[in-house]
Amino acid sequence: MHHRWRTIAARSLGLGILIGLATSRTAAQEAAPSVEEHEKAMKEIDYVVDDMEFHVDARYWADLGSDTDALRLRFVRVQAFWEAREAGEALGFLDRVLTANSALSRASMESDKDAAGRAIGELRAACKACHSEYREKTDDGYRIRPGG
């Protein structure tokens, strides 16, 4: 009987995650994030990428897999932000980031430290290229360049 309840709970959790993903995508499509929401997503992404590097170094493959899932969800909002601004170049950088994130996900499943390291390098390079194009330093930190 105990096993049956765990199975039901696991299925309910899986369904909840799927509903959450669908809701996130729907929300991203309905309303473009504000600059403040975009900045918040960027800060969260920075934390996740730092965690990724730690998890690769420590060979915490399951945690790295969770990181790639978290990153993908945050980039749904980033994509909506740049789509609303019709910023094709930013969306191109985003495609590179998502490709690197997929490579990280594969590396986590294969426990491949070298592939994970290369993918993090590709991810960081795509982020840096986008930041160079669309972000500028201010006295308070960073902001999106006017017109971005």
Determine the structural class based on helices, strands and strand pairing.
mainly alpha
- Basic shape: elongated
Strand arrangement in the largest pleated sheet: 1-2
Domain count: 2
Number of helices: 5
Amino- and carboxy-terminal Cα gap: 57 Å
CATH superfamily of the largest domain: Oxygen-evolving enhancer protein 3 (PsbQ), four-helix up-down bundle
What does the main sheet amount to? Answer: 2 strands, antiparallel
User: Low-confidence parts, pLDDT < 50 over ≥5 residues?
Assistant: 1-10, 24-28
Name of the CATH class of the largest domain: Mainly Alpha
Instruction: Give the rounded overall mean pLDDT.
Output: 84
List keywords for this structure.
148 residues, mainly alpha, Four Helix Bundle (Hemerythrin (Met), subunit A), 2 domains, two-stranded antiparallel sheet, 5 helices, 2 strands
Q: Quick summary of this structure?
A:
This protein has helices spanning 2-30, 35-57, 61-84, 88-110, 113-134, and strands spanning 135-138, 141-144.
Kindly describe this structure.
There is one protein chain. By secondary structure, the protein is mainly alpha-helical. The protein has two domains: 1-30; 33-144, Oxygen-evolving enhancer protein 3 (PsbQ), four-helix up-down bundle (Four Helix Bundle (Hemerythrin (Met), subunit A)), CATH 1.20.120.290. It has helices at residues 2-30, 35-57, 61-84, 88-110, 113-134; strands at 135-138, 141-144. Strands 1-2 form a two-stranded antiparallel ribbon. The chain is elongated. 21% of the residues are buried. The model is unreliable at 1-10 and 24-28 (pLDDT under 50).
